[in-house]
Amino acid sequence: MKLYKKESVQYVNASLEECWAFFSSPQNLQKITPENMGFKITDFDGKKMYPGQIIQYKVTPLAGVKIAWTTEITMVKENSYFIDEQRFGPYSFWHHKHFFESTPQGVKMTDVVHYGLPLGFLGRIMNSLVVEGKLNEIFAHREKMVDKLFNEK
């Protein structure tokens, strides 16, 4: 299986504690996800993020096809980083690291996603034709929404 990597960095005009409170809350993910993704949390215990927490979603990434997605929060260091990993869903492999660091320019928020797709050669073609572009679109939308929420005050 080929692994792909998507990395993004954004500076947020907020305190580290404000950033952490917002981004470590699964309920806020819908606020920064493109509406056309049909993102909806279907099961979540409502507790503060912790290792072992399971979160279930429905997403509609393409042509109205709904997909169930289950992630597990595998690591958490408050005000520093957390990691979510797909347990069931559209990817063969999904490992998403979220880092937060105070800097003179604001909170530096770094996302590093490693992902793999099923279907071997066909998955590689799908990544080139669809998946990579869709992930870029999602991260660009997220950057725009974070700017609106935090940086345009």
Tags for this model:
single chain; 153 residues; alpha+beta; Alpha-D-Glucose-1,6-Bisphosphate, Chain A, domain 4; seven-stranded antiparallel sheet; SRPBCC family protein; START-like_dom_sf
* Total DSSP E strands: 7
Straight-line N-to-C gap: 44 Å
Q: Strands of the largest sheet, in order across it?
A: 1-7-6-5-4-3-2
Count the helices. How many?
Answer: 2
* N-to-C SSE string, H for helix and E for strand: EHEEEEEEH
Radius of gyration from CA coordinates: 15 Å
Question: What's the CATH architecture?
Answer: 2-Layer Sandwich
Structural class by sheet pairing and helices? alpha+beta
Largest sheet: 7 strands, antiparallel
- Percent helix among the residues? 25-40%
How would you state the average pLDDT, rounded?
94
Low-confidence blocks of residues:
none
What general form does the structure show?
A: globular
Give me the CATH fold name: Alpha-D-Glucose-1,6-Bisphosphate, Chain A, domain 4
What is the CATH superfamily label? START domain
The fraction of residues in strands falls at 35-45%
Instruction: Compute the number of structural domains.
Output: 1
Any idea of the CATH class?
A: Alpha Beta
